[in-house]
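In this supplementary section we document a worked example of the pipeline. Step one takes a protein sequence of length 384 as its only input; no multiple sequence alignment statistics are reported here. Step two produces a three-dimensional model, which step three serialises into structure tokens for compact storage. The input and output of this example are shown verbatim.
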Amino acid sequence: MFNILTLNKIAACGTDLFDRSRYNVTDTETSPDGIMVRSANMLEDEFAPSLKAIARAGAGVNNIPVDRCSEEGICVFNTPGANANAVKELVIAGLLLTSRKIPAAIDWAKTLKGKGDEVSKLVEKGKAAFAGPEIMGKTLGIVGLGAIGVKVANTALSLGMNVVGYDPFLSVNAALGLKPNVKVVKSLNDLFSCSDYITLHLPYNKDTKDTVNAEALEKMRDGVRILNFARGELVNTDDILSALGSGKCAAYITDFPNDALIGVEGVVAIPHLGASTPESEDNCAVMAAQELINYLEHGTIRNSVNLPDCELAKTADCLVCVIHKNVPTIINQITGAISADGGNIENIASKSKKDWAYTMLDVTGAVTPADIEKIDGVSGVRVL
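The serialised model returned by step three reads:
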């Protein structure tokens, strides 16, 4: 029996995938094999020795201590692409909201309440303050061409925009998904200099922090409009406020408000609604559950943020799954420990991802996990 702990309300279409004859799913489990989480902060949590995997029902994993999980032999999954359409739709709305000053216009219209027969005349007199450009024929720069960025690019083309994109890690699948008219540029500077609108779709880390800062803004067109539906830290708050004040930036829309941004003219602050659709929540829950099931039952890894994709069919007596540092000699030590116990390795699959690796061995005969666990650099061993 596997125990699954849910730290947030997870859509039933996801949790219903767990066979209750094999899984116990609850929000009170103290010794879980797997955890399903959405936004709960796990950064300071202590994990039970039983924990083997965490599945984040969403793309970002800033609420999970990923590095510590690797050290403790815990596989961390996310659900890339599951909420891509929901975010894409909000980004397209953001293009229109920032162009036509729609939020400010709606707020102004509310002030006319009680004016009676004067409302129509006041509307005609005041509407000029909220005029704004059409997006057709304008250039949209997309920083990050992952699942969301590709959808935004293709939809923007359909709306008559010119689209340029930048992604130093553009995958083959993403490239194949782009419509032919999307122009991929070689540098951020190339994108900054030609874009009327810039939308950010990249992960937040030490290298991407403050991607939009004073220096970057100087390279952009006057009156640029910036959309941030990825992570708040990608845009330097002080610098964007300064650019709004000078007119360098015409509008900034973000799904990640902070106190300094709220109420500022030119800022549209949305309360993190990117993935807040029932369809998105369902997609994320289903993908997260499937990832946990495949890993717990078969050792298969897909969409892990700390370990590589890897799978191997079990054809012999047992499948040995080892999480270990990506350093020389460890695989030899693992196979040596299995051989010393009298096991015969029928098949092996081993993949690496930066500092960590995952090795699966299909073994005939007995295996003693403790002999593998004591190898320096090994953080997790399972025998299925």
